[in-house]
Amino acid sequence: MPGDACHVLVIEDDAETADQLVDCLKSSGYEVDLAVDGEDGLRRALAADYVVMTVDRMLPRIDGIEIIRRLREAGIVTPALILSALGEVDDRVRGLRAGGDDYLVKPFAFREMLARVDALARRSGTMVKETMLRIGDLEIDLLARIVRRRGREIELLPREFRLLAYLARNAGQAVSRTMLLQHVWDLHFDPTTNVIDVYVGRVRRKIDSGQDYPLIHTIRGIGFCLRAPE
Amino acid sequence: MLLSKTVRSSSTLKLAFIYVIAFCAAIFGLLGYVYWSTVTYLYEMSDRAISAESALLTKAYKAGGRDGLVELVNRRLTDGYFNDWLYLLVDHSFDYVAGNVKSWPAALHGNEGWSTLAPGDWQSEAARRLPVRVEHQLLPDGHHLLLGRGIEDLDRFGERVTIGLASAAVLFLILAAAAGISTSRRSVARIEAINATSREIMRSGLGERIPLRGTGDEWDGLAENLNSMLDRIEELVETNRQVSDNVAHDLRTPLTRMRGRLERACHQQLDLSHYRSLVNDTISDLDEILVTFSSLLRISQIEARDRTAAFRDTDLSEIVREVVELFEPAAEEKAVRLQLSASEAVSVIGDRDLLFDAISNLVDNAIEHGGDRGEVRIAVARCADGPVLSIGDRGPGIPIEERNHVLRRFYRLERSRNRPGNGLGLSLVAAVANLHSARIVMADNSPGLKIELHFPPPQRAVPSMSDQQERSWAIGPHRS
Questions:
Q1: Which chain B residues touch A if contact means CB-CB below 8 Å?
Q2: Span(s) in chain B for CATH 1.10.287.130
Q3: Which of A35, A63, B281, B348 could form a disulfide with B316, with the two C-beta atoms 3.0–4.6 Å apart?
Q4: Model's pTM, two decimal places?
Q5: Contact pairs from chain A to chain B, CB under 8 Å
Q6: Which CATH class is domain B218-303?
Q7: Among residues of chain B, what percentage have pLDDT more than 70?
Q8: ipTM of the predicted structure?
Q9: Which ranges of chain A would DSSP assign to H, the alpha helix?
Q10: Domain span(s) for CATH 3.30.450 in chain B
């Protein structure tokens, strides 16, 4: 039933892509409704309360951006992930301006898509503004900007702190390099070098070296994940 | 045929003819007026002289009667000055009394006043004097006085003027028509040269150029401009062709690898872990292709200049500091020292994302090619002619003759063919620099390469008004 904490609306007109999207989301535990054109999508989004929706940019009848604009006008704030085959340059800006919450250019890795849906779903949930994050034996005090592991303080540069905090807020979830660049550096392009990996590597050395178990993991093909062992 | 079909249908020729007709009409009008007023004036003067003489004769008649008049007439006939004059005094029955003609003209009846007698009007010895202009006066005692003056000279003069004017007009017409035709011919010939070149280009390709005459006139100017336009188009087409070739090449290699892998997976029995690594390799190859693809698209979009709407007042130093901070770990890993001097804020109107990306590429290159244990100096300065960003490494540098090529898409120096990278980094830098009207300068850092980005001074870089409005709107909340 829509309204559950894990109900996702997929608006996508290409049948195969839609199938793959639905499969991928279902296999990670989401309930999925599919709308195959803009009109249907808008009707469903207006009628039910979804936790996240993915919207194709180019749709028959009603354009993806138009759907989001109308929903926002109607006061519906369901986080929207725009999936677009259009070039990233101006279209990203247009999509986000219309009220989209995140933007992914086709073709994309499904795990990247999933990571972004997860991030939006958490944001949409009744997330308490925590000031203290704890992952395993790692403690992050967001107010005092202090990081401790096993009680010992670890010194981080401001940007390193932001990176760790972002990973910690998304603990247990994969976070892509592009997402990091976007949220930690406020830059909107896809990195073409391994510079982010190297940067994360330095943070990892500060956090993980000499500890019982690693917290920052590299997820092949996607990016990184901060998680404590089960 | 005097005129070719193109000349006959040329608009220049039509225009020339319209001018010729208008010009001739004006000339004819002017000449006609001159003719009319001159000739009328001359006849008037002649009539006036006759009237004056007539007044004198009448006075002599009044003073001395018929004999006084006869005496004056006879005196006149001996005076050479009045040689071309005609005097005839007859009595009431038109019999001769005095004068230099003997008989009364048949064409003239009893009416007083002015007449013009043409040859044939007067069958007598007076015929040699014709044509003549006469005044007929009836005296109180019944005598008729006929006083006249030959106007053959006047008529001849009139004829001469008419012939002169007509020949002038005809000459004008011929000259004007010739000038019109030759002008049209010249311009039609030049246009035809341009047309011929265009047809040749449509038929065989962009190699053709419009011939110049070296006269430096406006036609040569037009031809030169068209030729340099063709040069530019040819250059762009060539670049495009190269890019497509390179894309094809760069895509084919990984595609072939992937195909081979998939074929192997299809035809051979492999264990699960083999399959998995095969799929993973294929995915990373695909990712590589997608990165190349989106880099290309990104460069084209930047080059299409549809990105200036995102221009803001940005601090170049801050961007550079952030880039350096991002690359610090990468530099550490290669034992490269990053030396930054960018203390004061340097304002540049631009797009932060693009500038960051471009500077990242330059720093990345400097670390990559700067050699191990090297040093990369990055500086931002506010110079007299605008902000300058310079990045210098201690690597092998780029040979002078290759410096222009490295900005091209997919161009790679021989020594870096085997390193990872798609040869698009510097093309992106070039596109971003171009979008920001910045100049790229490559210099020898002896040893090493020094790349400088010279930005225009802030006031020159300000885009259109609408952009400025949007910018001030965007900066507003930032400042408050």
A1: 280, 283-284, 287, 290-291, 294-295, 297-298, 301-302, 306-307, 309-310, 322, 325-330, 332-333, 352-353, 356-357, 360, 364, 422, 425
A2: 218-303
A3: B348
A4: 0.60
A5: 67
A6: mainly alpha
A7: 87
A8: 0.72
A9: 15-27, 38-47, 64-73, 89-97, 110-124, 158-169, 177-184, 195-208
A10: 7-156
